[in-house]
Structure prediction request, 87 residues.
Amino acid sequence: MNSRLWFPLLLTMVLGSALTVIYVKHQSRVLFADLRSIQKQQDQQVIEWGRLQLQNTTLATHSNVESRARKDLKMRLPENVELVRLR
Prediction:
């Protein structure tokens, strides 16, 4: 083939390839930024989950349940305890 036909074809292919590389590199950077943002959100949620588990453990202790029952619900221990034994 004639060299006049090869040069424009090769030039077009090289420019197309270069533009594709630029586009893919840009997309890679955008996706990496999204990934970092999602990882940061995940880290914050893991910290929040740990805080909530600690709070749940604290609230579920026997002394805390008893004091809340006395204050908020006005509960008290019965004065006379009667045991009934069944056969």
